[in-house]
Design brief:
Elements: H1 27-40, H2 43-55, E1 58-59, H3 64-67, H4 71-83, E2 87-92, E3 95-100, H5 102-111
Antiparallel strand pairs: 1-3, 2-3
Length: 115
């Protein structure tokens, strides 16, 4: 089962917390946000996230070529991104189809002061 990390307090815009430039994060939010950033800190996961963001949705089977990694390795990385709440998957037959969680992406942009 995939556990999704949810950042603590929610602002009126629906983001997890105020932008870093507005006020300091709480300790709890900082710990949880660090986990989300840690999920993206791996070059394979960052590229995987980028591929999904650009494509909208991809089958796990379509990630082997661009990432030059085996299916078990891709499954490992998608699991970490899903646990961080960055992507979500839908099982169709024997394959998982992955897409970026747009709400989490919006929240990340907000916290980083991009929106």
């Amino acid at each position: 089962m995939v556990r999704t990390v949810t950042l603590g307090t929610t602002t009126s815009t629906g983001a997890c917390c105020a932008p870093l430039t507005d006020e300091p994060m709480t300790t709890a939010d900082a710990q949880e946000f660090a986990g989300v950033l840690a999920a993206l800190a791996d070059p394979i996961r960052l590229r995987l996230f980028s591929l999904l963001a650009a494509a909208g949705e991809l089958c796990s089977c379509d990630l082997e070529g661009p990432l030059e990694r085996s299916q078990p390795t891709i499954s490992h990385h998608t699991k970490i991104l899903a646990e961080a709440g960055l992507i979500r998957g839908t099982k169709r037959g024997k394959w998982m189809y992955w897409s970026v969680d747009e709400n989490r992406l919006t929240s990340l942009r907000h916290v980083l002061g991009e929106e």
